[in-house]
Design a protein that fits this description.
With 93 residues, the protein is mainly beta. It has one domain. Helix content is 13%, strand content 35%. The chain contains 2 helices and 8 strands; from the N terminus they run H-E-H-E-E-E-E-E-E-E. A 5-stranded antiparallel beta sheet has the order 1-4-5-6-7. The longest helix has 8 residues. The radius of gyration is 13 Å and the shape is globular. It starts with a helix and ends in an 8-residue tail after the last strand. The model has no long low-confidence stretch (mean pLDDT 90).
């Protein structure tokens, strides 16, 4: 199995990010801190077959987010995102 076989799209993050943020997150707009590309979380390239889940920028491949889950804890690293734009609750499309 090569890396292409393990690649998912950002929709695969829906449940995990929903658990963290308490809302639907795949339509949230993220800005890559590396290249400045803007896109919905659903468009990220995701690798979930490691000790954690990694979301990469579709434009430049930079790591935008990492989430590692243990028994009763999660660690979240969003340093690859310059910003994350969310619709106010109750106004989601």
């Amino acid at each position: 199995m090569d890396a292409d076989d393990l690649r998912l799209d950002g929709n695969s993050l829906g449940g995990l990010l929903g658990e963290l943020f308490g809302r639907e997150m795949t339509a949230a707009l993220g800005t890559c801190a590396s290249c400045g590309a803007v896109g919905e979380v659903a468009t990220l390239v995701v690798y979930a077959h490691a000790p954690g889940t990694v979301g990469r920028c579709r434009a430049c491949g930079a790591v935008l987010l990492r989430v590692v889950r243990a028994e009763r804890r999660m660690w979240v690293d969003l340093r690859g995102l310059r910003s994350l734009q969310l619709e106010p609750l109750g106004e989601e499309p």
